[in-house]
Design a protein that fits this description.
Elements (H helix, E strand, L loop, with lengths): L2 E3 L2 E3 L6 E5 L8 H14 L3 E6 L2 H4 L22 H8 L3 H14 L2 E6 L2 H9 L5 E3 L7 H8 L5 E4 L5 H13 L5 E6 L14 H9 L2 E6 L5 H8 L4 E5 L17 H18 L9 H6 L5 E4 L14 E4 L10 H4 L20
Parallel strand pairs: 3-4, 3-10, 4-5, 6-7, 7-8, 8-9, 9-10
Antiparallel strand pairs: 1-2, 11-12
Length: 349
């Protein structure tokens, strides 16, 4: 299966599609948001992704305990969800400017809407693809809304049970979406590699017959690179200009140089997967094959002399008889005089 996102093809036959997630790392600065776009271009990312919501479209302003963030390690500890999302959201009036800037910089731009009004807004900007975030994959009305646009939909599977993933995919297909990419995701920030369970990637491909990728929140490159070997065709990583910027996601985001390295290493990982093949793979390996083992005469042998473990040996290079013949030759007589260093052949026996 191949899916076109903008002008770029996504599938096992193509290099990994790398998405730079801006999230709230713009720190409420449009100029910083545009610099993050520049950083994604510098890194060689395939696309940059926004999030389209307001505090009012994602939650309500309440200090009831279920709305409060209770995590002493979190910079938002003690604040409520409304305050967090108000700070982290990308102002809607920025979207068109960011989309246009991406077009100028020749990098694909799309977004994750968090409610139906965001879909209507993004349709006016002609977003080429939609992303359903992991905490929204149970928002069936939202999945229906984006599917009705007929555009490709990327669904992050974090938080979802197998039945919930099935419901999301079924909803998308019933409402006209023919191009679905599922992302394996561990919805903790940062996530531990041991919690990533990327063996789920080929299982998702098998069960749902669609493209599968990874939304990665781990630190480093090990998990996304390993996922490519398991068939991930799209990798999403958060991008920040600097981890010291105290952005809402900066602690688990990649820097521009880290993302650039991910792009390079992902391409190498993809190239290395190749096909199931045994033996030599290219001309260089055929050249190297000459230096495998074979049977050689290691002492001068006279005509009629018997071959033994002292006058023949399995050594490099591979110009003589195959080593499988060694014990067949032992005890046989030489037809002629053979000089030391001569590759053994059947016409000598």
């Amino acid at each position: 299966m191949t899916i076109k996102l903008g002008q770029i093809s996504v599938g096992l036959k193509f290099k990994p599609f790398i998405v730079a997630e801006m999230s709230g790392n713009h720190n409420r600065s449009l100029q910083r948001a545009l610099k993050i776009v520049d950083a994604a271009v510098y890194a060689g990312a395939s696309a940059i992704k926004l999030q389209t919501y307001t505090a009012d479209t994602i939650t309500i302003n309440s200090n009831r305990k279920e709305f409060l963030i209770r995590n002493k390690k979190n910079i938002w500890n003690g604040k409520n969800l409304y305050q967090l999302y108000k700070e982290a959201s990308t102002p809607w009036e920025w979207h068109e400017k960011i989309f246009n800037y991406c077009k100028k910089k020749k990098i694909l731009c799309f977004s994750a809407p968090f409610d139906e009004s965001a879909v209507d807004f993004l349709e006016k900007l002609n977003t080429p693809v939609y992303k359903i975030a992991s905490f929204e994959n149970n928002h069936i009305p939202l999945i229906k809304k984006v599917s009705l646009t007929g555009k490709p939909v990327i669904i992050s599977t974090g938080m979802a049970s197998l039945n919930e993933i099935k419901e999301a995919v079924t909803t998308a297909k019933k409402n006209g979406c023919k191009k679905i990419i599922l992302l394996k995701c561990t919805s903790s920030y940062p996530a531990k590699p041991s919690s990533s369970n990327i063996l789920t990637i080929p299982e998702l491909r098998k069960k749902f017959n669609c493209e599968v990728g990874l939304s990665d929140h781990t630190l480093g490159l090990g998990v996304p690179l390993a996922s490519i070997a398991l068939g991930a065709t799209l990798i999403e990583k958060h991008l920040t200009l600097s981890k010291s910027d105290s952005g809402v996601d900066s602690d688990f985001s990649t820097t521009p140089d880290e993302l650039k390295n991910l792009v390079i290493q992902s391409n190498l990982a993809w190239e290395s997967v190749g096909n199931v093949k045994f033996g030599t793979a290219d001309k260089l390996e055929n050249y190297s094959k000459r230096f495998r083992r074979s049977i050689y005469v290691i002492k001068d042998i006279k005509k009629g002399e018997k071959f033994n473990k002292h006058n023949i040996k399995v050594i490099r290079p591979a110009n003589g008889l195959h080593p499988r013949n060694f014990f067949k030759v032992i005890g046989k007589k030489s037809k002629k005089n053979i000089n030391k260093g001569t590759p053994l052949s059947f016409d000598m026996i």
